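**Folding the chain**
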Amino acid sequence: MKKITGEKVTEYVLILTISAVLILIGNMINTITDKNPDTFVSVLAGLPGILILFAIAFAGTILGTVIPKVPTAIWITLIGVLVAMPYNTVTAPFVVAEVNKIGILPTCTPILAYAGVSIGKDWTEFKKIGWRGILVALFVMIGTYVGSALIAQAILAAQGII
C-alpha cells in the first residue's frame, strides 16, 4: 500500500475539475447543435451527472494510487458498476438518470486532448519508436475504426435501423 500525499490529491482534483468543466461546456454545445429542443442540457442540468462521474473517477484514482496492484481503470469501472447496477435500488435510479444527461462525445474530448498533450510533451520518446512503431499504430487505429464501423453496420442492419 502506498501513501497518498496532499499534493497528489490536489493534482487529481485539478485535472478532474478542468475535465469536468470542459465536459459540461462541450455537453451543452453538443445538445444545442442537436437541433432537438427536448434534448438540451444546460450546464446546471448536467452538473449532478458530472459530479457523480467526478466522484467515481476521484475515488477510483485514489484507490488506484493507494493499492497499485489493481489498475485505476478497474477501480473506476468497479465503483461505477456498483453505484449504477440495476440491483442497487439505493443509488442506481438517481445515478443513471443524471449521468444519462452527459454525452459520450463531450466526455471523450478532454481525455483525447490530454493524451495529445502527453504525447507532445514526450516527443523525443515518441520519435524513438521509429517508423515501424508509427506504422503499426496507424494500422491498429485504422483497423479499430473499420472494425467498429463494420460491427455497427451489421448490428444496425440486423435491427432494421438502416
In short: Residues 6-123 form one domain. Residues 38 and 78 are 32 Å apart (CA to CA).
